[in-house]
């Protein structure tokens, strides 16, 4: 038996004043309680209790040891209460990670609204397109796009990210508008490093070399606005620029397939109240509608 368990039994005997009363409260046989206290005394090499036929008295060592046992039990009760609050009421720290585009364009407003609803939850969000080690980095929740590979994680599909091909009016005025996917071979295509090919309708185009490429969709958005070429971007990322006429859609008859967007977390059981509250909030916030 763990020493902490023996200390708890000793503290109960001292508080109750007898092995019989302590055994009743602990729901253990009296002989077991007596044996456990004897084990603790043997472990310590000190007598904690003076036993008589009528009563128990604490030795000087027992008095000193009891105060530490009681402090331990109070600390354990405080720990249980703290964990219960995390389980029952949204509180504590949530560590998130999200892709750059949605992490900068969509999540700040959503997380600000979540914090208003749950002010006891502290949120930290790492914005990166890299797939962080959720366990090693102690990430509670990751937002991810595309195909998921690690089936040991719990995933909840949030929605689909609609994608569009866009270019600036000056670029199209100078280079002409493509009318079929093959026309892209004669254009400057702004490539994301993760996508050397573009799936357009039923066709797949390997993008020509040269021109600009980046690991950042925000960079490609700015490059397109400056007339650098045609970019494939999430619709939510360039919706305002399209509405303002700064970017025009091209090849609308050949739409890129959408990307699935997921919330992923490591544990299959006992999520904290804060994490459960955030997952529910994401669905109620209609993040799916903003991604489309």
Task: Please describe what this structure looks like.
It is a single chain. The protein has helices at residues 3-16, 19-26, 30-44, 60-88, 100-105, 107-117, 169-175, 217-225, 235-243, 273-284, 287-291, and strands at 49-51, 56-58, 92-98, 121-127, 141-145, 154-161, 163-167, 189-192, 197-200, 203-206, 213-214, 230-234, 248-249, 259-265. With 292 residues, the protein is of the alpha/beta class. The strands form four sheets. The chain has a five-stranded mixed beta sheet. It has a five-stranded mixed beta sheet with strand order 11-8-12-7-13. The protein is rod-shaped, with a radius of gyration of 32 Å.
Helical stretch count? 11
Straight-line N-to-C gap: 58 Å
Structural class by sheet pairing and helices: alpha/beta
Order of helices and strands: HHHEEHEHHEEEEHEEEEHEHEEHH
Main pleated-sheet profile: 5 strands, mixed
Cα-atom radius of gyration: 32 Å
Which runs of at least 5 residues are low in confidence (pLDDT < 50)?
Answer: none
Question: What topology, given as strand order, has the largest sheet?
Answer: 4-3-5-14-6
* Rounded average pLDDT: 90
Strand element count? 14
